[in-house]
Each structure stands twice: as C-alpha cells, then as structure tokens.
Write a structure and sequence with these properties.
It contains 8 helices and 15 strands. With 287 residues, the chain is of the alpha+beta class. The chain folds into 2 domains: 122 residues, Aminotransferase class 4, branched-chain amino acid transferase, N-terminal domain (D-amino Acid Aminotransferase, Chain A, domain 1, 2-Layer Sandwich); 156 residues, D-amino Acid Aminotransferase, Chain A, domain 2. Strands 7, 8, 9, 10, 11, 12, 13, 14 and 15 form a 9-stranded mixed sheet that branches. It binds 4'-deoxy-4'-aminopyridoxal-5'-phosphate.
Amino acid sequence: MTRTVYVNGDYLPETEARISIFDRAFLMADGVYEVTSVLDGKLIDFAGHAVRLQRSLAELEMRAPCTMDELLEIHRELVRENGINEGLVYLQITRGAPGDRDFAFPDPETTEPTIVLFTQNKPGLAASPMAETGMKIISIEDQRWGRRDIKTVQLLYPSMGKMMAKKAGADDAWMVEDGFVTEGTSNNAYIVKGNRIITRALSTDILHGITRAAVLRFAAEAQMEVEERNFSVAEAQAADEAFITSASSFVMPVVEIDGVVLGRGTPGERTRRLREIYLEESRKTAV
Ligand code: PMP
C-alpha cells in the first residue's frame, strides 16, 4: 500500500516525495528525529517527544519549521490518512538543502529546514511476542560520539551494533563505556535488584528516553524504587531482572546477557508489571 507522507508542507504519496541531494542530513547526518508510537490510533506521549525535539534543535542551533501544535496536527493527519491503529510516526528535521556541499552551516535566513514525516503500520505492537519470551542481549563497546543526548540521525554505529547482535544470534546490544553500560542501540537499559530499578543517570552519555521518564514516574505505582547510577555487565548478569525501554518497544524484558541467563530465563514479574502499567497509563493520556 502506498503511504501518504509529509514533506515540507505537502501531504504526498510516498512515491512522489522528493528531497534534495544537497540536504544536510543526506551529506552530513545534520538532522534530528523523533519516533512516537501509536496505540488505538492515538499518539503516545506526544508532549514529551515535542519537548525533546525542541531541545535537540536548540542544541544544534537549528530552526523548527513549524510550531509544536502544527506538528501534532501533521502527526494526527498522517495517522488518520494511513489508517494507523498500532504503529509509529517517524519525524525528521534537517538543516535543509543549501544547494551545495559545505561543512559550514548554511545561513538559516536563506536555507529552510527540511521536515519529513511518515508512518509505520505495526499491527500487534502492544502484544509483541518478544514481551513473552524476552530478549537476548550482547554487550559491545560504545563507539558513538559524545553528544548522545541529542537525537540525531547519525545512527551508523547503532546499526552496526544491531548487526553484531544479529550475527551473534542475539536480539540487541547494550553498549559499554569505561566498564559501565550506557544504553541499548535504540533503547535505555535497566536492571532490577529486589524492589529496585537501576538505570544510568541522565547526562550527555545517553539519550534521555521519553519512555524512560514515564517508566520511572510509574515505578512507585509498581511498588518499586529507582536508583539512577552506573552498572556493569557483570552486575546486570547477576541481577534479578533486566529490561529495556523505547517508544517502539515500550518495556521489553531481557532474559540473557552475553550468554548468561537471568533468573529462570523468562521475563521477570516486576518487568511484566511495569510493562502493563506503562501501556495502561500511556493509553489513558494518548492524544
Ligand atoms: N536510547 C537510544 C540510543 C535510542 O535510540 C532510543 C530510541 N530512539 C532510546 C534510548 C529510547 O528513547 P525513547 O524512549 O524516547 O524512544
């Protein structure tokens, strides 16, 4: 089925969408993005994604091409137009296409940012089989740049990490820097010890996950405490439970790390509960 996508003010069939070869994102990965999930045809945590988008743009001195209200309307229109009940909306804003290749940023007065949105239909997103089986994780060295708090489209190393996991027969990779886990290739990483959720504190080392913020808010509801600190792969392997969070996977259990099985090798009770609460609560506030 041909999707309707949004490019610089126009709703178009995906086959008619065009971007310049001089676009800064194509040549320099000079762009930021957001992925918002859709459940029951509604956007999950749109406000959180909009705030992070504005922060990413500000950190890179990039202009927003429209207001956040307009952005919400574009998201909703695409969800309607493409009949998405469960799935994702991908949004990308770039520094635009100055008409030639140059390392220096173009003058924002004369070069308009590029904005692109498209939907991804994912029936069964909330009832993912992986939530029942859990994920196998390998650890890899974190070789990304130092501003991981900005959600840029330079995703080559995370892509390589996913491939390393695939080749090793695993589902994903956690990245490790100076002996401690930073995050997953496209998700935040957690371990559970007793009643305590342990996850790395926010800094420029990791992306400030929107799902992370929500899950930590819901922790009390699950009768759990939160400890924001570094943990190593060895500590994770000895933990009671482990999981990841992201807008596209919500809360997803981890059952194996570098070949070491956690507990009984099935998703932990606390992780299950957190996933349930997350899905329930975020459906309530979806727009
Ligand atoms: N860390 C990284 C590196 C990511 O790419 C993502 C997802 N884009 C996340 C964490 C999770 O963020 P969110 O919960 O906002 O999807």
